[in-house]
Specification:
Length: 416
C-alpha cells in the first residue's frame, strides 16, 4: 500500500525556483527556428564561423596527455595538482613576485571561477570576524551569480556604484565614495579585468586610487579573475591590478578561472589563492592553507584532474606557453575587431546616440545601453538574443552577422 504521508518538502517551504535567466535565454535561442537568429547571450568564445574554438595549444596538450603512458585517473591531492597551482601563482602574481618568494601565497585548485569564489566565501564566513561578519560589497551591476554565491553562505551584501548609464563608462566618483563610506573591515569584491557584465575597467591610475582608499579604510580585497589574457591579449596587463595590490602589502583573496583564456569551459579548471600581508610569514600562509584543505575536503574531497593537467602542461612548457599567448591574441583580437566593426556600422547608419562605448569597453561583453524594451524588440522582431539588461556577448558577432546585428540595433533604437 502506498504511503499517505505528505512530502517533507511541500511547496510552502520548497517553492518552484525561477529559471536561471541566462540559461533560459539559451534555451529560447535554441527553440528559435529562424535562420537569421544571433546568440549574443552566452559568455563563451566563438570563432568567425560561430563555432566553439578549441585552442590549438590545448589540442597539443591533449595529445601529450593521451600519449603519456603514465597517465592515470587516480585522485589528486586535496589541494590539487601541485605543478598546476604553482604555475597558477606565477601567472597571476608574476614569476618575480615577492609574495611567492616569501611563501606568503597559499593556493588550492578549485572548480573554475565559481568554485574558487565559493571556497573563498566559505573561508571568509568561517574565519573572517565570524562573530560579526562584515558585508561584502559587489559592484552595481555585477555577474548575477555573485549574489547567490555569497548569500548562500550567509554573507551580507552591499553594493558600490560602478556603471554610469550616462557615459556608459565607469562611475568612478560614485565607486570611490561608496568604498570610502564602507565600514572598516568590509570585503570589496573587485573584477581584475574585463568587468562582467559591463566590459568597463578602471585605468591603472584609478586602480591606484582605489588601493589608496582601501588601504586608508582598512578594507579587504577579493579579486575575481576570470579573463586574464582573454581581455587585452596581454597576461601581464590584465593582472596589473592584482599585482599592484599585492606589491603594496595587502592581504587578499583571488578566484582564478581558466574557462575563458584556455577555452576549458566544461573542464572546470580554476585556482583559489590567499595572499598573506607583507608583515606575515610563510607559516601564516601555511595555516590558512591547512584550513582551506579542510573546507575543500568537506565540499568536493579533491578537484577534477584533466583540465588542470591541460593547463599545467601549457603553463610549464616554454614553447606551449608562447603558443598559448598567440592563441590569446587571436581571441582577444577578434573581439576587438568585432567591437570596431559594430561601432563603425552604427555610426555610419547614424544610429541615434553615441557608440564609442562599444570600443571603449573590453573583453567578452559590451553593456550596449539598450533598454529592456529594445532588447525585447531585438529578440521578437530580429531574433537577436542578449540579456535583458543590454549585455551583449561580443563573441557572438562575426563577419557574417555583424551587419545584420547593426541593422537590428539601429531599428530598435529608432522605434523604441
Amino acid at each position: 500500500m502506498a504511503s499517505s504521508k505528505p512530502s517533507a518538502f511541500p511547496a510552502s517551504t520548497v517553492p518552484q525556483a525561477p529559471e536561471d535567466p541566462l540559461f533560459g535565454l539559451m534555451a529560447a535561442y535554441k527553440r528559435d527556428t529562424s535562420e537569421k537568429k544571433v546568440d549574443l547571450g552566452i559568455g563563451a568564445y566563438r570563432d568567425d564561423n560561430a563555432k566553439p574554438w578549441v585552442l590549438p595549444v590545448v589540442k597539443k596538450a591533449d595529445d601529450i596527455l593521451r600519449n603519456d603512458p603514465n597517465l592515470n585517473h587516480e585522485y589528486l591531492p586535496i589541494a590539487g595538482l601541485p605543478e598546476f597551482t604553482s604555475a597558477s601563482q606565477k601567472l597571476i602574481f608574476g614569476s618575480d613576485s615577492q609574495a611567492i618568494k616569501d611563501g606568503r601565497v597559499a593556493s588550492i585548485q578549485a572548480i573554475s571561477g565559481t568554485g574558487s569564489l565559493h571556497l573563498g566565501a566559505l573561508f571568509l564566513r568561517k574565519f573572517y570576524n565570524p562573530a560579526n561578519p562584515p558585508s561584502i560589497y559587489l559592484s552595481n551591476p555585477t555577474w548575477a551569480n555573485h549574489h547567490q554565491i555569497f548569500t548562500n553562505v550567509s554573507l551580507q551584501l552591499a553594493h558600490y556604484p560602478y556603471f554610469s548609464p550616462q557615459t556608459r563608462g565607469l562611475d568612478f566618483t560614485g565607486m570611490l565614495a561608496a568604498i570610502s563610506a564602507a565600514p572598516t573591515g568590509s570585503i570589496i569584491l573587485l573584477h581584475a579585468c574585463a568587468h562582467n557584465p559591463t566590459g568597463v575597467d578602471p585605468t591603472q591610475a584609478q586602480w591606484t586610487q582605489i588601493a589608496d582608499v582601501m588601504e586608508q579604510k582598512g578594507l579587504f580585497p577579493f579579486f575575481d579573475n576570470a579573463y586574464q589574457g582573454f581581455a587585452s591579449g596581454d597576461l601581464d596587463r590584465d593582472a596589473w591590478a592584482i599585482r599592484h595590490f599585492v606589491a603594496r602589502g595587502f592581504e587578499l583573496l583571488v578566484a582564478q578561472s581558466y574557462a575563458k583564456n584556455f577555452g576549458l569551459y566544461g573542464e572546470r579548471a580554476g585556482c583559489f589563492h590567499y595572499v598573506a600581508p607583507a608583515t606575515a610569514s610563510a607559516a601564516d600562509a601555511s595555516r590558512v592553507a591547512s584550513q582551506l584543505a579542510i573546507l575543500q575536503r568537506s565540499e568536493i574531497s579533491n578537484p577534477p584532474a584533466y583540465g588542470a593537467r591541460i593547463a599545467s602542461t601549457v603553463l610549464n612548457n616554454g614553447a606551449l606557453f608562447a603558443e598559448w599567448k598567440e592563441n590569446l591574441t587571436t581571441m582577444s583580437g577578434r573581439l576587438i575587431g568585432m567591437r570596431a566593426e559594430l561601432r563603425g556600422l552604427l555610426e555610419k547608419k547614424g544610429t541615434p546616440g553615441t557608440w564609442n562605448h562599444v570600443t571603449d569597453q573590453i573583453g567578452m561583453f559590451s553593456f550596449t545601453g539598450l533598454s529592456e524594451k529594445q532588447v525585447g524588440l531585438l529578440r521578437e522582431k530580429w531574433h537577436v538574443y542578449m540579456t535583458k539588461n543590454g549585455r551583449a556577448s561580443v563573441a557572438g558577432l562575426n563577419s557574417r552577422n555583424v551587419e545584420y546585428v547593426a541593422e537590428a540595433i539601429d531599428d530598435v533604437v529608432r522605434s523604441a
